[in-house]
What we know:
The protein is built from 16 helices and 15 strands. Strands 4-10-9-8-7-5-6 form a seven-stranded mixed beta sheet, with helices on both faces. The chain has a four-stranded antiparallel beta sheet with strand order 11-12-15-14, covered by helices on one side. The chain has a two-stranded parallel ribbon with strand order 1-13. By secondary structure, the chain is of the alpha/beta class. It folds into two domains: 42-290, Aspartate Aminotransferase, domain 2, CATH 3.40.640; 296-431, Aspartate Aminotransferase, domain 1. Helix 3 runs antiparallel to helix 11, helix 5 packs across helix 10 and helix 7 (152-162) runs parallel beside helix 8. Pyridoxal-5'-phosphate is lined by residues 31, 93-95, 98, 122, 124, 170-172, 197, 199-200, 223, 234.
Amino acid sequence: MSHLKQTDPELFKILGKEESREHNTLELIASENFVSYSVLEAAGGVMTNKYAEGYPGKRYYGGCEHVDEAENLARERAKKLFNAEYVNVQPHSGSQANMAALMTFVKVGDTIMGLDLAHGGHLTHGSPVNFSGRLYNVISYQVGKETGRVDFYNLMKLAKEHRPKLIICGGSAYPRFIEFEQFRQVADEVGAFLMADIAHPSGLVATGIHPSPMPYCDVVTTTTHKTLRGPRGGMIMMGKDPENPWGKVAPKSGRVKNISELIDSMVMPGIQGGPLMHIIAAKAVAFGEALKPEFKEYTKAIVKNAKTMAEEFISLDYHLISGGTDTHVMLIDLTNKNITGKAAENALEKAGITVNKNMVPFDQRSPFITSGIRIGTPAITTRGMGVAEMRKIVKLIDSVINDHENEALIGNVKNSVQDLCNSFPLYDELRD
Ligand SMILES: *Cc1c(COP(=O)(O)O)cnc(C)c1O
């Protein structure tokens, strides 16, 4: 980075501040992670220069022989990781992946179903402020008040009543395994497509810790930057028989022969132009890392850390939605602690602990205030923290939440956070 230091000291300084923020805080946002230095290198590499509209072997531009190699490598590694027969690694983000997948399987005005945002769903699963809510007729399903898990009785009832063309399963704040098999039963009952969005648990899916959607879902989307620990981006996959997925979708034009081609054409030229080849190269690197045995150990540690935190929180009388977690994420309802999600987020931030406020199911408060916080372990597990640190961190969080206006206490917690961060340094490679 010494070059940037000379040519643009202003931006260099900003980057330096972000580096030290990442080093000096405890990152508990469940959707965040720290990529390896190798991924960082590929993402900052020369492939950012290349225009490569199209797909390997079929580009609109010359000079694509090496980006073709990178994209093919990313695809092959992704297929192996997820046991997929078809992969598109070009979506710029998870939202783009969802848009392309939805536009492949349903037409504007069709009915789709997704998990309610306040119950753990994602904006792209039908929120009125998102393209998905604007283009489609959305029927949201919810979790049960007592169980905190998807209410399949109600989902089936709604599906029979509204006959959706497509059902989306998965979410952003769902602490339990996604119940692909049960969703398939509902989809079959009403003749709907089933789309899994595994943006959050994809690293756990890749290592077999979370069940795989491939046997049950018509199409699977994911981000690459959450538990999968790759660069910021998205991906679309299909499992068995991508040539003819159950004969349910008629090709929309004579040139397109099958669903995988339809998805490819919906990503580009449908919703995107040139792919981010440097990011696709970085995806290849991340998928290579995820194929190694160490990555399974890593994802196991993520879940072990999350379960440890969950137990500690419960022992301190915190209310966890669904009573715990199967994954990397937990959703905590703070109502009994007399603090809003917003106030908790702010106080914890002052103490060097980053979490996000989050709606809880049946929340009485607005999305800007909320009654809960969401906590995840991928990033701190990447730093090497384990069970002992989890216990320590829960105690720190608890002390802030119980006395969130006590500046002296927050200062003390911040010191403990600093000690922890110093013991688990980030990006040694960047220090010169
Ligand atoms: C994070 C997330 C996305 C979107 O990812 P972006 O890359 O931020 O667009 C989509 N779906 C779910 C369930 C997510 O959690």
